[in-house]
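**Backbone description:**
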Amino acid sequence: MQPTPVRHAVFVQVLNNSPEEAYWICELAEKHDVIKGIVAGLDLTHQHLQPTLDRLASNSKVVGVRHILDMESEDWLSRSDVISGLRILEDRGIPFDLLLRPHLIRYVPHLSAELPRLKMVVDHLAKPYIKEGRIDDWAAGMKLIAANPNIYCKLSGMVTEADLNNWKEEQFEPYVKHILDCFGPDRCMFGSDWPVCSMAGASYADVFHILLRLVRKIAPGHEAAIFRDNAVRFYGLKL
């Protein structure tokens, strides 16, 4: 982060169904003030979800929950036990990070209907097919998702959805523009996807400056909102 103006960050889960990871990051956050928020990887269907959330609630830096959907069946988001777990998050006011891919977007309107108070944020623009240059179906789905004012979107993860060895910054512009058009600059936030971005040869600073240039071009004047304020508001961070 040092080559950029960024000085605070939110840690987002690496492991599924691992409260132990969240407890460990809580310990790190006590030593490293850079960590202002923690999104935990919890099993939404576990019978001990409530006690786990009770324990994590003792640390104000635990601000959200995420689940890696690639490891689940396609219909995971529509399962009744998953909806029940998400309803617990909704009742507690805990946001949920949606790690989608384009074929999973169609399940989100049902979540919006079932859980109208649940705050959600789509990670990595729902991983559009940037390498193939496909945009139409993804764009229609994201516009539908954006109709729910409780859903935000992270502008992140683009370099690894392009050709890992031959990506170009201009490839990302139509995707970023569409998200900003649909969600508005007050419901979008920067995400580094570090260290995964290094798979495409991109450093933290590279990813930061790519998005900064695009935001300055597409939505000038909204840099502070996208790179700081929206995340602070969505997760309820204390800086």
Remarks:
- The chain has a mean pLDDT of 97.
- Strands lie at 9-12, 35-41, 62-68, 96-99, 120-122, 151-155, 188-190.
- The first strand starts at residue 9 and ends at 12.
- The two ends are 17 Å apart (CA to CA).
